[in-house]
Amino acid sequence: MENTDFSTKVLSQKERMYRLAVSLLRDSAEAEDAVQDVMERLWIKRGQLDGYGNLNAFILTSVRNACLDRIRTRKMRAGKKELLTAAMPAAEDPRPLQELSDMKSVAEAVIAALPEKQRMIIHLRDVEGFPMEEIAQVMRMEADSVRVYLSRARRTVREKMVTIMNYGIH
Fold it and tell me: Residue 18: pLDDT above 90?
């Protein structure tokens, strides 16, 4: 892959890579570091990138793996207690509901509480607009399984949003 092709095909994906990293790591500085690490690895392997059928899926898979490696490292350093909290998102946003100034913030908090696979799939489909087949490649799952996870994630978000709107509880 030539330098201009790298700029066109890889560097143009940087914002998408960052959004995925932030959704997984929940830390903007760490997400920037993860994206930078992936960019460096992709640059080193730029001669091999033309061999991938779906470069976007490969790039996002690389970001996903880099983030999961960072989460594993964080867990190993933090010990058993933080291992559990890093693996499972908090079920509730600790901020009072009145601090969540708009429904977007509430929806983001509900989505952040989803299990990792559901959170990632709903992000790739509903935020990034990826087709199911590409999400299946990134997640290394069957397309039917992706549909099931997406359906469950959307149902959970919908139910939590209704509860919050009706009762102010989450």
Answer: yes
